[in-house]
């Protein structure tokens, strides 16, 4: 079966076998958990509760490793270059994030915040997810602090803005092309791939399965 | 799908559900034993927090639109553009698509976000015209699109790091960039502070016995 049963009519079920919808608080009896590629959704609010996928762990680790590699590569290599009338300038993603640093303390703070949103948080989330999932896919006991690591990764999810930055790049490019000649560096293409991978990483993950496994 | 006995919320069953991992605990448990998340049947201060972040976000949104976002200096002129002014100028140069992206990300999304969050917070206390599910859809939409407002801040960052061609043309960020970024961050915090389970409690009250 793919849908969990409402738990209200069952006599004192073990709390372990229940799941509460995080969106609307409806309680379900998990019973036979949904199989691979099936989904259990909340009947009241349609929130996806459980959605395990075939060898998701290994795939997420592979994606997270590439995210990590791409973030590092895209950060240190120049990703855009412009030239006009013999003058030219190139800029890396970190340069862009730190663009506000010359104009006072508050803007410096904003610079660090932007660098975190574009580079550090996506990278940190990838590291945390790899740390949590490696022992799980090998059927070992989780590494120490794994649940705290996964909690942090989940907490940071809305603050990881690599894909928003990518759209910002596209807009900036078109704005600049009126002023000067623009060249796309390799980091620009790396970053475009990265954006796709970040989205894949989040859709593959079944949080319920991970938490259940971390509990042991 | 069969629903024998009807759905009950964890609260109605005298239990607390963890909003992070879904594990259910007896009422009064302080922390989730599975994921370590702090447990609250409902966050009593949720709505207050929503309004506090909402207000700060709105306050920051005003200077974000009044002050210049971008300062362009060339050999012949120095130009300062606000968010809307920049978009209008882009449209004048024929870049309608980009002007539209900027207007949607910097005006339409933030303004509708203020409206939706206020509507959700009010609907918890007062009777709402929209169904609970419709309101949750609005909430999820706001949570999803809120971060896209950052686009213009990133554009300013990219322009000011890249367009540094000595005396020919150079671009500097204006004070509005800071206020705008802050406004986006505060409204994201406002949406996150909202406890979506509150949407359903009002409906449940009409039928089932009141929660303990
Ligand atoms: Zn639900
Ligand atoms: Zn939990």
Q: Can you characterise this structure?
A:
The complex is a heterodimer of chains A (216) and B (212). Chain A is built from 7 helices and 8 strands; from the N terminus they run βββββαββααααβαα. Chain A has 216 residues and is of the alpha+beta class. Chain A has 2 domains: 13-50; 56-215, Up-down Bundle (Butyryl-CoA Dehydrogenase, subunit A, domain 3), CATH 1.20.140. In chain A, strand 4 (40-41) and strand 5 (48-50) form a beta hairpin. The radius of gyration of chain A is 22 Å and the shape is elongated. The mean pLDDT of chain A is 81. With 212 residues, chain B is an alpha+beta fold. Chain B folds into 2 domains: 1-41, no CATH class; 44-205, Butyryl-CoA Dehydrogenase, subunit A, domain 3, CATH 1.20.140. Helices cover 55% and strands 10% of the residues of chain B. A 4-stranded antiparallel β-sheet of chain B has the order 4-3-6-5. In chain B, helix 1 packs antiparallel against helix 6 (175-193) and helix 3 (96-125) packs parallel to helix 7. The two termini of chain B are 29 Å apart. At the A-B interface, strand 1, strand 2, strand 6, strand 7 and helix 2 of A face strand 1, strand 2, helix 3, helix 4 and helix 5 of B. Bound molecules: zinc ion (ZN) (2 copies). One zinc ion (ZN) is lined by residues 18, 20-21, 23, 32, 34-35, 37 of chain B. Chain A: It comes from Pseudooceanicola albus.
């Amino acid at each position: 079966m793919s849908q969990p049963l409402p738990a209200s009519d069952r006599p004192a079920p073990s709390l372990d076998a229940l799941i509460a919808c995080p969106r609307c608080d409806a309680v379900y009896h998990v019973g036979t958990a949904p199989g691979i590629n099936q989904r259990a959704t909340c009947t009241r609010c349609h929130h996806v509760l459980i959605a395990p996928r075939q060898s998701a762990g290994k795939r997420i680790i592979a994606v997270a490793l590439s995210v990590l590699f791409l973030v590092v590569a895209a950060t240190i290599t120049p990703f855009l270059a412009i030239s006009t009338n013999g003058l030219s300038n190139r800029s890396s993603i970190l340069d862009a994030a730190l663009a506000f640093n010359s104009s006072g303390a508050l803007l410096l703070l904003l610079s660090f915040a932007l660098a975190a949103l574009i580079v550090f948080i996506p990278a940190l989330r990838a590291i945390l997810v790899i740390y949590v999932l490696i022992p799980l896919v090998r059927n070992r006991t989780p590494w120490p602090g794994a649940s705290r690591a996964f909690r942090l990764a989940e907490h940071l999810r809305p603050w990881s803005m690599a894909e928003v930055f990518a759209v910002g790049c596209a807009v900036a490019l078109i704005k600049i092309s009126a002023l000067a000649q623009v060249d796309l560096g390799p980091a620009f293409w790396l970053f475009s791939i990265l954006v796709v991978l970040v989205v894949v990483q989040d859709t593959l993950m079944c949080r319920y399965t991970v938490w259940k496994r971390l509990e042991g | 799908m069969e629903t024998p006995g009807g759905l009950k919320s964890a609260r109605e069953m005298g239990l607390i559900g963890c909003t992070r991992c879904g594990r259910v605990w007896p009422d009064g448990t302080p922390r989730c034993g599975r994921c370590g998340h702090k447990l609250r049947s409902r966050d009593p201060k949720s709505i207050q927090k929503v309004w506090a972040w909402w207000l700060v976000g709105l306050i920051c949104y005003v200077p974000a639109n009044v002050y210049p976002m971008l300062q362009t200096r060339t050999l012949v002129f120095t130009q300062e553009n606000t968010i809307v002014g920049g978009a209008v100028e882009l449209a004048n140069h024929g870049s309608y698509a980009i002007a539209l992206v900027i207007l949607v990300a910097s005006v339409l999304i933030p303004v509708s976000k203020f409206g939706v969050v206020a509507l959700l917070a009010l609907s918890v206390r007062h009777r709402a015209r929209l169904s609970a599910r419709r309101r949750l859809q609005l909430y999820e939409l706001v949570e999803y699109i809120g971060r896209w407002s950052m686009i213009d801040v990133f554009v300013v960052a990219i322009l000011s790091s890249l367009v540094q061609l000595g005396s020919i043309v150079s671009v500097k960020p204006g004070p509005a960039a800071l206020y705008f970024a802050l406004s986006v961050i505060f409204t994201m915090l406002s949406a996150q502070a909202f406890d979506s389970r509150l949407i359903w409690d009002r409906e449940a009250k009409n039928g089932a016995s009141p929660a303990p």
